Amino acid sequence: MSKPAVLTKMCELHVIDMPQDEKLAERFQTSFPTAGYDESAGQWRMVWKKGTYAESNARLEAFFAENGVAVTHIDKC
């Protein structure tokens, strides 16, 4: 496993800090087309609607597991 991805949940905003890997980033963008990369913060950001948090977490965890990346969660919601 590579460096873990850090998923910070801030209610409707999810911030994803993941290993700097071009192929992983390409797969992430394809899997989550609504995600945007914030150059100044060096993190991916995604907005999730209330009521879909469990689904979003499951999708993110599945994505990272399939790509051999551990996930650390920080809940600020």
Name the average pLDDT: 86
What is the CATH-assigned architecture?
Answer: 3-Layer(aba) Sandwich
What is the level 1 CATH name? Alpha Beta
Biggest beta sheet attributes: 5 strands, mixed
Shape: globular
User: How much helix, percentage-wise, in residues?
Assistant: 25-40%
Order of helices and strands: EEHEEHE
> How many domains in all?
1
Q: Strand tally, please?
A: 5
- Report Rg: 11 Å
Write down the CATH topology.
MutS, DNA mismatch repair protein, domain I
Poorly predicted runs are none
Briefly note the structural class of the backbone: alpha+beta
Beta-strand share of residues: 35-45%
Strand arrangement across the biggest beta sheet: 3-4-2-1-5
How widely separated are the two ends?
Answer: 28 Å
Task: Kindly list the characteristics that best describe this protein.
alpha+beta, 5-stranded mixed sheet, globular, 77 residues
Written account of the structure:
This protein is α+β, with helices and mostly antiparallel strands and 77 residues long. The chain has a single domain, classed as MutS, DNA mismatch repair protein, domain I (3-Layer(aba) Sandwich). 31% of the residues lie in helices and 38% in strands. The chain is built from 2 helices and 5 strands. It has helices spanning 22-31, 53-66, and strands at 2-10, 13-17, 36-38, 43-47, 69-75. A 5-stranded mixed beta sheet has the order 3-4-2-1-5, covered by helices on one side. The model has no long low-confidence stretch (mean pLDDT 86).
